[in-house]
């Protein structure tokens, strides 16, 4: 028996082929740009016929806010990915199905990363930003690694009370490799097993089944990343020598709640999942945003000058920025917003999925449809952000204040509805302090390539769940000898 709703048409989309639908047309490089082009023909709510994974792409804020925001009671599920399961990434709270199990994880994440709690991490953020300044001053040739170091050290300290002094420490290398696996297995349209699940039962020596080898290689690495630091803290707690960290606090809280020191299987899993997701969600994302900032500054020296005028006026020459300067550093706030808009960290956000048949603008969106929000298209919409490829902090300002009439890019860049990024306060604060600290002490210069050509940030991005510039051709030069001294004498 047909319901009335199911007689409605699906949203329009590119014409596909029998059986494989649009699978062969799926772009593997910067798909957000291709989707944007396709949406010019088919509209901002576009259907892609992918086997086992019908997909709708939303290219406008209007559609994303309505479906993922207002209707988030039914649009907060995640699509199931066999590739993620095979590579052992399906435990992550970021990929859990919309359920009580997910809500339990979300509640703990909120406890540790809500706006009020995040203020407690400011001393860690300040210390790591200042350690960065010293590293950039004394070993300027590995700038990219130093940038990554800031956000790795912040999240490792918060989560495990671990001091990351070297980026080649075992824990960091493990976490980086597990994250590489994440970006490899989340490439949309790449793994046929997600569209033809029977492939997972075929032997791995058959041609075309490399996905099995990839998953088998990464699985133990991801397992170890999630368990090793956690087990170390659990052991230290048993021996009464654990220091305070998110992990120890969470374990204690779960122990208190259940009234026993032995965690139940469910609580043990919850704790491992919440602590395990922290690095993977925090490090590469904030690093990518900071890279975007550095590249923008190297291409727009006039914006640097304006920011430095503000920093000199508010802070003066004899100290480094503090979080208490936040309200007075409006131009720096605008730069942080623009960095998240200009080169979008998660250009296709994270995929949602709908748990019931729904109708929108007269179209059917069937239960189980994967819903992709093209955040890149929304943040590069010239109607909202004129000349979107220009880096222009002024677009958010009016009379020396943030202009509320312009859409704050954070309302898109951190995702939507009930799945919105729980780490957004931490990410934004780390980014703000990094930008203020660097601009207060250094000038950022562009490094031209061998042919003397300037860097084109938009044709040099790595495609993945998280998009990053493929290099950061910038160098930092101290603004003066006094600022050099300031860097060396500040802790
Ligand atoms: C500039 C930095 C960051 C950006 C741009 C960013 C962006 C995002 C986006 C777009 C999503 C998907 C939201 C959705 O599905 O609608 C997300 C999810 C998530 N983020 Fe972030 N994020 C950042 C930093 C962080 C940090 C610092 C943490 C950790 C403390 C974090 C933890 C998470 C988690 C756990 C999820 C999954 C939420 C869920 O599925 O319920 N993020 N983030």
UniProtKB/TrEMBL annotation:
InterPro entries given in the database record: Cyt_P450 (IPR001128), Cyt_P450_CS (IPR017972), Cyt_P450_E_grp-I (IPR002401), Cyt_P450_sf (IPR036396), Cytochrome_P450_fung (IPR050364)
Taxonomic lineage: Eukaryota, Fungi, Dikarya, Basidiomycota, Agaricomycotina
GO MF entry, a single one: monooxygenase activity
Key words of the record: Heme, Iron, Membrane, Metal-binding, Monooxygenase, Oxidoreductase, Signal, Transmembrane, Transmembrane helix
The protein, known as: Cytochrome P450
Cofactors required: heme
Pathway entry: Secondary metabolite biosynthesis
Cellular compartments annotated: Membrane
């Amino acid at each position: 028996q047909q319901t009335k709703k199911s007689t409605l048409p699906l949203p329009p989309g590119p014409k596909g082929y029998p059986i494989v639908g649009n699978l062969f047309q799926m772009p593997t490089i910067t798909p957000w740009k291709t989707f944007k082009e396709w949406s010019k023909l088919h509209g901002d709510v576009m259907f892609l016929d992918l086997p086992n994974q019908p997909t709708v792409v939303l290219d406008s804020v209007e559609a994303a806010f309505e479906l993922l925001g207002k209707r988030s009671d039914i649009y907060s599920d995640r699509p199931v990915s066999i590739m993620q399961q095979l590579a052992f990434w399906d435990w992550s709270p970021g990929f859990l199905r919309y359920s009580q199990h997910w809500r339990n994880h979300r509640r703990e994440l909120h406890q540790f990363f809500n706006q009020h709690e995040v203020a407690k991490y400011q001393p860690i953020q300040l210390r790591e930003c200042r350690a960065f300044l010293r590293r950039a001053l004394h070993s300027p040739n590995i700038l990219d690694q130093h940038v990554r170091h800031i956000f790795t050290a912040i999240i490792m300290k918060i989560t495990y009370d671990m001091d990351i002094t070297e980026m080649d420490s075992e824990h960091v290398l493990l976490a980086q490799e597990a994250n590489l696996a994440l970006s490899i297995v989340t490439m949309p349209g790449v793994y046929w097993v997600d569209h033809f699940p029977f492939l997972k039962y075929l032997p791995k020596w058959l041609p075309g089944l490399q996905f099995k080898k990839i998953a088998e290689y990464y699985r133990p690495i991801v397992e170890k990343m999630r368990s090793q630091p956690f087990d170390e803290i659990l052991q230290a707690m048993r021996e009464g020598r654990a220091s305070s960290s998110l992990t120890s606090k969470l374990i204690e809280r779960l122990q208190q709640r259940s009234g026993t020191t032995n965690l139940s299987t469910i609580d043990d899993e919850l704790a491992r999942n919440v602590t395990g997701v922290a690095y993977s969600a925090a490090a590469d994302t904030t690093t990518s945003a900071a890279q975007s900032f550095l590249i923008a500054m190297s291409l727009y020296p006039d914006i640097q000058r304006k920011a430095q005028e503000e920093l000199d006026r508010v802070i003066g020459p004899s100290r480094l920025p503090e979080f208490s300067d936040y309200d007075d550093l409006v131009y720096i706030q605008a730069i942080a917003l623009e960095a998240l808009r200009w080169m979008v960290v998660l250009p296709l956000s994270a995929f949602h999925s709908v748990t019931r048949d729904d109708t929108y603008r007269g179209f059917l969106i069937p239960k189980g449809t994967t819903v992709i929000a093209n955040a890149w298209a929304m943040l590069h919409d010239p109607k909202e952000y004129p000349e979107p490829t220009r880096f222009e902090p002024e677009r958010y300002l009016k009379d020396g204040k943030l202009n509320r009439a312009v859409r704050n890019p954070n309302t898109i860049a951190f995702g939507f509805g009930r799945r919105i990024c729980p780490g957004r306060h931490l990410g934004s604060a780390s980014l703000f302090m990094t930008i203020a600290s660097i601009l207060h002490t250094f000038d950022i210069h562009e490094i031209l390539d061998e042919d003397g050509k300037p860097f084109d940030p938009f044709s040099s991005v790595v495609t993945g769940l998280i998009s990053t510039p493929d290099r950061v051709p910038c160098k930092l030069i101290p603004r003066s000898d006094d600022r050099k001294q300031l860097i060396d004498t500040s802790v």
